[in-house]
């Protein structure tokens, strides 16, 4: 067990919600070693995965060009078919199969399965994102999740939801992990870990030794203004603050190679509310 009795606040059982992104999934060796560590965690756990990089690569092969605005993929008719195949099929099922080879009782899900993550199509304001969904945090049915988690199943969640009118929606995996963590914090002592290819939030993106061990909102705003933080790390940190400010016990951002240290608070960047 990674957690000790002092971690078991409010008598709630610990639950790890761990997110991996495209760079980790794209590298077979990195993914394998991460899944080995993940499967060794004895506590209850959920894996949320992205795969944006793979969808872009498969799209390129099929002649489907990827377009992003503010880190969100513009998802037209052919792109929703592409990401459904890549996230819900290729990536999700490969991870599930590999976890079973490691004696981890994984069950592949998307937000649409058993309606575990109710969502709405993002309304068109200035930008039409197409078939992109936003999870409705307050409508998450925690007991549907309990059904899996409390029966020794390990959900592996693809970043797809549905709109209640028969359409699949592409949904950002970082946001999905944060919103799910918030909802399940009512039942469990949730620790959210964002795993990516860097050692944490860095003061110099090219120096893996420059990890910021704790990040509060004042430091965050300063680093953002100084352009030390840019691109994908910004929405990731925004999601991390959202989680920690809404009941999630602990949120850490760090390297997928260090999952077990991250889970013990011995690596990465801890987000402070
Ligand atoms: N100061 C920083 N520290 C860490 N990462 C940073 C920083 N500034 C920018 N980044 C970028 O943010 C990226 C992480 O976001 P993203 O690519 O969306 O991750 P993922 O696909 O794993 O969710 C890193 O790969 C890195 O290039
Ligand atoms: C709406 C939207 O942008 N969805 C994301 C979902 C995948 C994802 O989040 O993947 P990473 O975690 O690997 O970035 C996308 O299609 O890129």
From TrEMBL:
Record localization? Cytoplasm
Superkingdom to which the source organism belongs = Bacteria
Class in the EC hierarchy, top level: transferase
Q: Which residues form a coiled coil?
A: none
- Indicate the annotated site residue(s) for Transition state stabilizer: 19, 236
Catalysed reactions, as listed in the record: N-acetyl-L-glutamate + ATP = N-acetyl-L-glutamyl 5-phosphate + ADP
Q: Where is the Aspartate/glutamate/uridylate kinase domain?
A: 15-255
Among InterPro entries, the record links this protein to: AceGlu_kinase-like_sf (IPR036393), AcgluKinase_fam (IPR004662), ArgB (IPR037528), Asp/Glu/Uridylate_kinase (IPR001048)
Give the record's pathway.
Amino-acid biosynthesis; L-arginine biosynthesis; N(2)-acetyl-L-ornithine from L-glutamate: step 2/4
Cross-referenced Pfam families, in alphabetical order? AA_kinase (PF00696)
Ligand binding (substrate): 51-52, 73, 170
Key words of the record? Amino-acid biosynthesis, Arginine biosynthesis, ATP-binding, Cytoplasm, Kinase, Nucleotide-binding, Transferase
This entry carries the following GO cellular component terms, namely:
cytoplasm
- E.C. code: 2.7.2.8
According to its UniProt entry, the protein's GO biological process terms are: L-arginine biosynthetic process via ornithine
What Gene3D superfamilies does the record point to? Acetylglutamate kinase-like (3.40.1160.10)
- Predominant localisation class: cytoplasm
Chain's role: Catalyzes the ATP-dependent phosphorylation of N-acetyl-L-glutamate.
Q: Member of which family?
A: Belongs to the acetylglutamate kinase family. ArgB subfamily.
Q: What is this protein called?
A: Acetylglutamate kinase
What organism, scientifically named, is this protein from?
A: Ginsengibacter hankyongi
By which gene is this protein encoded? argB
